[in-house]
């Protein structure tokens, strides 16, 4: 069932202070949500994001939350339930990237942080609100932002790729579980994009036929997929092609195609990330 409008709904977005998270918040306002809940660890940018949205219809709620901490998630979720109840729309958008060879990663600052924010946080946050979504019986949506890196291995992305592989496996399994259990009023969308021009992947180069994606176009496509309940969204089309080729070619042959033809394996060579 496609959602025609978000009128009267509550939308919660993580990583909402900048980039695509901030854009999702603007879309929620444009779509006439009643409450828009913004979570981010950066309090200063969070205030700026909230200021852009206030006075345009919905009630804006901002919470400084470190989604890498389960205790912080639990406390913030309790505040949300007390203030506005269970969200109808949950956008698990927050994420970080560390573009290094595996042996260059620091244990806590890189490996533990990446897995906590990218993999565990969407699970913990969804677990906080899903029972309320199930019990409420209202049409609800969950969007989990994964990555094409969760479908294809890539040098200098070992930990990031692992975190996104986890998201994809969990997110699509959750979709199936909800359907099997009869909770069909809740739809889960797993989003798997290639590189997007938000600054997060500054310095990365798109593989052959895969230019860096425009964030405005991407957020609107994700928003539509969310409203339609699309199970998996891959962008651009080359992500589907690469996934198909990886599935049918022998490993050695795929390494040649990915590395020498498409340039996937060299895409992170000049990565610097957001300053």
Automatic annotation (TrEMBL):
UniProt GO MF annotations? oxidoreductase activity, acting on the CH-OH group of donors, NAD or NADP as acceptor
Oxidoreductase listed as a keyword = yes
Pfam families the record matches: adh_short (PF00106)
Q: Cite the entry's keywords alphabetically.
A: Oxidoreductase
- Gene3D superfamilies assigned: NAD(P)-binding Rossmann-like Domain
Q: Which domain of life is it from?
A: Bacteria
Q: Which family does it belong to?
A: Belongs to the short-chain dehydrogenases/reductases (SDR) family.
Q: What is this protein called?
A: SDR family NAD(P)-dependent oxidoreductase
Organism name = Arthrobacter wenxiniae
């Amino acid at each position: 069932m496609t959602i025609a409008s978000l009128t009267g709904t509550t939308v919660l977005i993580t990583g909402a202070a900048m980039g695509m998270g901030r854009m999702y918040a603007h879309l929620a306002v444009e779509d006439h949500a009643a409450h828009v809940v913004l979570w981010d660890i950066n309090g200063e940018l969070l205030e700026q994001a909230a200021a852009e949205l206030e006075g345009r219809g919905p009630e804006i709620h901002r919470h400084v939350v470190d989604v890498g901490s389960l205790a912080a998630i639990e406390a913030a979720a309790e505040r949300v339930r007390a203030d506005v109840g269970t969200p109808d729309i949950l956008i698990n958008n927050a994420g970080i990237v560390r573009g290094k060879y595996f042996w260059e990663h620091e244990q806590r600052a890189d490996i533990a942080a990446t897995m906590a924010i990218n993999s565990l946080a969407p699970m913990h946050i969804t677990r906080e609100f899903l029972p309320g979504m199930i019990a409420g019986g209202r049409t609800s949506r969950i969007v989990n932002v994964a990555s094409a890196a969760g479908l294809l291995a890539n040098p200098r992305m070992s930990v990031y790729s692992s975190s996104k592989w986890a998201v994809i496996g969990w997110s699509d399994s959750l979709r199936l579980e909800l359907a099997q259990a009869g909770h069909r009023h809740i739809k889960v969308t797993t989003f798997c994009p290639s590189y997007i021009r938000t600054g997060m992947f500054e310095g990365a180069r798109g593989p052959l036929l895969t230019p860096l994606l425009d964030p405005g176009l991407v957020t609107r496509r994700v928003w539509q997929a969310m409203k339609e309940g699309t199970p998996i969204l891959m962008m651009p089309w080359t992500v589907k092609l690469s996934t198909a080729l990886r599935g049918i070619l022998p490993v050695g042959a795929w390494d040649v195609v990915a590395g020498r033809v498409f340039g996937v394996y060299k895409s992170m060579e000049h990565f610097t990330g957001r300053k």
